[in-house]
Design a protein that fits this description.
- The chain is mostly beta strands.
- It has one domain: Outer membrane phospholipase (ompla), Chain C (Beta Barrel).
- It has 1 helix and 17 strands.
């Protein structure tokens, strides 16, 4: 099943309006294990993001995000090229109507490829908006819609996010349905909780060697996580869990006009040339810098 690429990175200087994205710098590493045909394999994903506040005047704020991903596949069939790279940039504009209401508009574009030969087919792009409302000191919600031009066609992504603190010790936050999380704060330095994470990535392969085929990687992961304040404004996060849905699918180059609503195809989708669909253990480690925390 095709998954949504929902790497929507929002940032403003008024961080309380965008509670899910407070990191200015983040580095994460994920290890996913799986087996196929009696072969033990694993994928390793490294993700680096830098968020830059660029402009703030009156009720408006403008920011940029740059990111890099590196995906390595170990003990996969030879058809699965590795390593794969992603370089992405995003610009976001926020307008604050009142202390309670704000609107964010964003655009993003990126190069996702094995980098053997680069062409315009290696680029993906998207745009969207989100309206956010602070109901009280304990509850904020947001509603939005995004469009993404993927290698497999067009994608429409409605989403909801929430930041809710029912008490001093508990927080429910994240983007629903792809990144909700519930955390219990043991003290000011240590928190523990559970997360659901839906991740997707796709990479174009070489035009000369692979005729512009592309690889689509999808994971739905349940995690138990521990977050620790390592130093002033720095956080370390360790998570362990299970990829209850995980797929690595290789497709021929297609110029598709198909449309997908989140993960639901609105017309018949292409069949993969080759696929590996298998769950497995997942371990994640991240380091982030949060000066507004």
């Amino acid at each position: 099943m095709q998954r949504v690429i929902v790497l929507l990175s929002f940032l403003t200087l008024q961080y309380n309006l965008l509670a899910q994205e407070r990191e200015l710098v983040s580095v994460s590493y994920g290890l996913s294990r799986l087996s196929y045909n009696d072969t033990a394999a694993n994928s390793q994903l490294t993700d680096i993001k830098l968020r830059l506040p660029l402009y703030l005047k009156g009720k408006s704020a403008f920011s940029g995000t740059v990111g890099y991903r590196n995906l390595r596949l170990h003990h996969f069939p030879d058809e699965y090229s590795s390593p794969l790279h992603g370089i992405q940039g995003q610009a976001a504009w926020l307008y604050k109507f009142t202390q309670r209401r704000s609107l964010t508009v964003f655009v993003q574009a990126g190069l996702f490829s094995d980098m053997k030969d680069i062409s315009k087919k290696d680029f993906r792009y998207g745009a969207g908006f989100r309206y956010r409302f602070r109901h009280s000191d304990r509850l904020s919600t947001g509603w939005g819609l995004a469009y993404a031009r993927q290698f497999f066609g067009n994608q429409i992504i409605p989403f909801i996010d929430i930041d809710y603190s029912p008490g001093q010790k508990w927080t429910l936050s994240g983007q629903f349905p792809v990144k909700p999380q519930l955390f219990y704060h043991i003290n000011k330095r240590i928190s523990t909780g559970i997360e659901l994470s839906g991740e997707a990535a796709s990479f174009r392969l070489s035009e000369n060697d692979r005729a512009n085929q592309f690889l689509q990687v999808n994971q739905w992961t349940g995690l138990f996580s521990v977050v620790c304040a390592a130093a002033r404004h720095w956080q370390i996060k360790l998570g362990a869990g299970w990829n209850f849905r995980q797929s690595f699918r290789l497709y021929e180059d297609v110029s598709s006009g198909s449309w997908t609503l989140i993960t639901i195809p609105l017309r018949q989708k292409a069949d993969p040339m080759q696929k590996i669909d298998k769950g497995g253990a997942n371990i994640q480690l991240s380091l982030s810098y949060k000066p507004f925390q």
